[in-house]
């Protein structure tokens, strides 16, 4: 009888403990922050945030892009100082720089961004209000591309922190966490290197990665560290040490779109965290597509970072000339509503439901800049593409897609009507591109659980286990000399 009572009480205590654990995981206060320079950095955060809200968590999201409309369950904070700096810094002509054969950002521009944006953010009134609010958080999720400034907030609020690495081919935050990132097979994301490089390519690759690493080190050590301590106090630890203590990294990438990588247990590839099945199109778009019958349509979009009002007139006319010769309907994301010489088979729109269009049965090809999220979406929906890279990781993404056989890469500075027309005909009429795109789609979709669901699980795992320090590798604390065992080599007498 006593044994039955004891078993009964153990069962009740077990249920109460389980309920208490579930209650903790369902009621967490989570602070997310990105200071990334383009709007695309917001998308993975919003998707994860909406998923976490659906599981009962409270989400606060700091970013430099005021929302067009509120997102249910997410409190967005857009400090005016941060918004002002990012808006002015990103007032760039990416396309013009590419056409002139120039780098859109000089090394000095890259160098200054980290500490200047941090200073504008931390001195902002809304940021100070948040810091002095007395709010308590259970977890911070920050952008792996620019985490250093946000690490100061993690120290202030005394919380474990995770990264969402929003640039799929960028390995800086992955390396800092202790995962191996061999430069012999890790291409610099802003060049068209692959993971199978010649010796000349490897020399160039090491040069670019060394320069990027050096600039990042100098900027953080000499400036960002001082800015953070000036605003949050001298007790803030070394930011590089904090970077290596990250609990978990959600990597926005997938080996079917980027490259296979040797990741440690605290790294999750969650490519296509934002990908969704297509929804029915608005009537005006569906009617326009149906004008072309079974011939189908082409989608053209250069993303959020390329402003089409900067298109030189000759380039606009080039596209008009080519589109007018096609038997397909063309949907073109353009920042203006009208164009006097627009062909009848072309429709302009300031915004297009890109995923719904990519999933439409009548789509024939996608003309894109090659941004990571667009590449993931096109593979998810199995659409062949023409890429015209402009900036940052576009070059590496485009080269990988071409290597995988579902893309044709064009250099926008060398574009002619003949080259564009030939590429469009080839990508649509040669079945190998569509077949390769569908094959990649199968690889991307063949997972035991959706990327979002898996990301939600591991986020709550970090919450449940108070930072999940048992997942961290000791390699993150080793110097280069220790990591490569150089200190074990004795000089021969």
Question: How are the secondary structure elements laid out?
Answer:
Elements: H1 2-26, E1 29-33, H2 42-54, E2 58-62, E3 74-77, H3 80-89, H4 94-99, H5 107-122, H6 125-131, E4 139-143, H7 148-157, E5 161-165, H8 172-176, H9 199-232, H10 239-244, E6 248-251, E7 267-269, H11 283-291, E8 297-301, H12 313-324, E9 329-333, E10 346-349, H13 354-358, E11 363-368, H14 372-381, E12 385-387, H15 394-403, E13 407-409, H16 417-429, H17 431-445, H18 451-464, H19 480-483
Parallel strand pairs: 1-2, 1-4, 2-3, 4-5, 5-6, 6-7, 8-9, 8-11, 9-10, 11-12, 12-13
Helix pairs in contact: 2-18, 3-5, 5-9, 7-9, 12-16, 14-17
Notes on the protein architecture:
The longest helix has 34 residues, at 199-232. Helix 2 packs across helix 18 (451-464), helix 12 crosses helix 16 and helix 14 (372-381) crosses helix 17. Residues 13-25 have low confidence and may be disordered. The chain is globular. The chain is an alpha/beta fold and 493 residues long. The strands form two sheets. Strands 3-2-1-4-5-6-7 form a seven-stranded parallel β-sheet, sandwiched between helices. It has a six-stranded parallel β-sheet with strand order 10-9-8-11-12-13, with helices on both faces. Strand 12, helix 15 and strand 13 form a beta-alpha-beta unit. It has 19 helices and 13 strands. It starts with a helix and ends in a 10-residue tail after the last helix. The protein has two domains: 27-274 and 451-483, 3-Layer(aba) Sandwich (Rossmann fold), CATH 3.40.50.2000; 283-445, 3-Layer(aba) Sandwich (Rossmann fold), CATH 3.40.50.
